[in-house]
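Review form for a predicted model. The reviewer records the input and the model, then writes brief findings.
Reviewer: anonymous (R2)
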Amino acid sequence: MASNQAAPEAPFVYGGYRPDEGPWEEWNPSAESVLPNRGKHRVAKQRGGGGFARSSTVLGVGVIAAVSAGGMASANTGKPPVSISLPDLPSVGHLLDDSSSTPKGSATALSSVGLTTTETTKGTSDAGELLRNRIMEQAELQQLQVDGKSQAAAEAAVAKQVDAAAAKAEQAAAKKAAEAKKAAEAAAKKKAEAAKLAALAKQYTLPVASYTITGTFGQAGSMWSSGYHTGLDFAAPTGTLIKAIHSGTVTEAGWAGSYGYRTIITLDDGTELWFCHQSSINVSVGQKVATGDVIGRVGATGNVTGPHLHLEVHLNGAATASDPAPWLRSKGLNP
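Model under review:
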C-alpha cells in the first residue's frame, strides 16, 4: 500500500485539546461530505485457517485510518488540516496473502518464549537430567524393595532352619534323656535285684559245698521212669554233708523206692524240696530246720549209678517237678 504524501509539519496531539486550534465544533458527516473509498481499502475475502490473523491486521489498518480521519475531522476550520504520514508496511501484504508459509496449527512453545537457544537447550538438558534422576531413584527403590524381600526370605529360611535344628536337637536331647533315664532305672533295678539276691543268699544256701553237676532237668533217658530227668544231680563222695537250703519244716523222712532215702522239707510258701539217694537221714518229720542245718549225707541208694544228691523242686506242693536251676538262681544261688 502506498504511503501518504508528507504534510507540512504541525504539532499534533492525539486525544487532547489545543488552545491554538480555537473552539471545537461538532462535525456531522453526510453522504455528500464523505466520499466512499473504493478499490484500495477493500479487504479480500478470507479463506482457510489464517483468516483470523488477516482480519486482525486489516482491523489494525482500519483503526489507524479512522484515527487519522478523526484527527483531520476535529481540526479547526480556520486552521490548515493536519496530515498524518504512514510509513510503508511491507509486512502487511504477506499477512493478506493466502499462500502463507507458516504451517497451520504451528505454535511456539510457551515454555520457550523469551528464552535464548542456549537457555532452552539448558532447560531441556536439566529436565532430561531430572527425569533420568527420577528413573534412577525409582529403579534403586525397586531394587531395594527386591533386596529387602530377598533378605526377608533368606532370614525366614535361616530362622526355619534354626528352628528345625533346635527342634531336632531338643528331640535328640529328650531321646538321650529318656535312654539315660531308662538305663538308670535298669541299673537301679539290677542293683536292687542284686541287693535282694545278696540278702536272699544269706537266707538260702546250696545243699552241698563241693560237687559236680552230672544231670540237669529235662534230660531224656530210659533209666528214668518218667522218660526224662526230673531234677538236678550234685555228684559228691558218699558221706558228704547235705544242708537245708532254706528254713522250713520236715514233712517226710525215709525210704522212697527208686529215690532211695529221701527227705522232704516244706517252705513257708508251700514249696517242697526233695533230697534223694541219701546214705543217711539226720532229721525227723515235723522238725523245724534253719538255713544251713545238716539234714543228711550223700549216698547211692535207690535207682542210681553212683553217689550223688538228686534235688527236686515242687512249687506249691505240686506233683510235677520244676527245674531246680532257675529257682536256685532266683534265690541268689548259682549252681
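Findings: The helical segments are 51-73, 90-96, 117-203, 324-330.
Further findings: Residues 49-55, 69-76 have pLDDT under 50 and may be disordered.
Recommendation: see findings above.
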